[in-house]
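Aim 2 progress update. The chain analyzed this quarter is reproduced below.
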Amino acid sequence: MNHASHFWELILGTIIALLPLINPLAAAPTFLAITEGITETRRNQQLRAACFYMVGILVSFLIGGTFIMGFFGISIPGLRIAGGLLVAGIGSGMLMTAPRDPAHSQREHEAARAKRDIAFSPLAMPMLSGPGSIAVTLGFTSLAAHWLDYVAIILGIVLVAIITYATLRLSGKIVLVIGLNGMNALTKVMGFLILCVGIQFVVNGVLGIATDPALIKSIRDAVLQH
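Predicted structure tokens:
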């Protein structure tokens, strides 16, 4: 029973951590602008491919996370703190920054539309699986102790991709209903949630260092020597 509850907790935790970062609702206007001028069928094909790419990118970092950490000598608490700082910075930026300059956004959209295939870039990366999502996915490596844990996290990533696909496929209707002001307000709310996730990552990393048995033993030995 405990294993089953942990399995579902990992799936839910993956969705809660990744969905605010990917934020498909706030990405809807950008998606519409980037895919402007192409047919509905082609737009859905590009979106579907982008979601597959997103899953592939995040799963690759999840599975290769242990190798990456071992190769560069990165500890789990260090990864949590670094990832937390990055995610918190993204959330803080979403809270504090003003709406983007329309002229600047238009130049980006024109450059994106000039590409033949926009599924991988800029849709899959960095729009759907940017640095924040990758950092969070790497952080999940520390939570996976069994192969079933990896299955649960991968299922969570797939569910996020399905939610993202469904949301962006309906992006035209969503933008009309919510409006630009609603999108800005939603971005602020998501930014606050992302900031909270990042801070919690940092707290977990600091607690991991503070409760490290080797550190506690060295402190105890130093105190006893005096």
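The radius of gyration is 20 Å. The mean pLDDT is 79. These observations will guide the mutagenesis experiments scheduled for the next reporting period.
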